[in-house]
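Incident log, structure service

09:12 report received: a user says their structure output differs between two submissions of the same chain.
09:20 pulled the input from the user's history:
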Amino acid sequence: MRWAGIGCALLAAVLTALVVAGWRPLHSYDDQVARDLHGHAVAHPGVTHAVRILTDWVWDTWTMRALAAAACLALWWRGQRERALWVGLTMVVALVVQQGLKALVGRPRPQWPDPVDSAHFAAYPSGHAMTATVVCGLLLWLLPRQAPQWAVRSAWAAAAVSVLGVGFTRIYLGVHWLSDVVGGWLLGAALVALAVSWSGRQRGSGSAGR
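09:34 re-ran on a clean worker, output below:
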């Protein structure tokens, strides 16, 4: 798990460097994808309205953070306070990394003569994509080991749909570039993998000490 986190972090670092350097092939592909999806959004207002509901309510960053907060409270109530603290700490670190990179990179969002949605702050990385990845990853980590297979499969399917779906909505609505979303996914996956790995090492050290 630790090496998976390190790998995602390295890939995110490379992608960030390419975004900052203005690597032409990346920016050209970002522009092509954004134009194609935005054109579809403008031509299909009904689909666009449904996508806005998903991104503004179902997969909104505050909805995801509320899920993480509810998980923390449930864990604390059940006496699993170390896990609750790990979830809370990971969410705080994710927010700091996300906002710090937005300020440092300062990437402008796509601009359209006929926008279908709007968003604030810099574009890179996508806060929606990163937050959904972190929250869904942490919730999967919290699944009980004795959970039935159908429940585990359903949870993984819901997490995959949420993470991929929210990334699509941000590009479709014309408020993010594709690389913003990929960067959010990579950073979120790296944080979850490293947090889970470190938490396991801490618990192992504590058990050895006793």
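09:41 both user submissions now match this output. Likely a transient worker issue. Closing.
09:42 reviewer note: The chain is about 80% helix and 0% strand. The first helix runs from residue 2 to 21.
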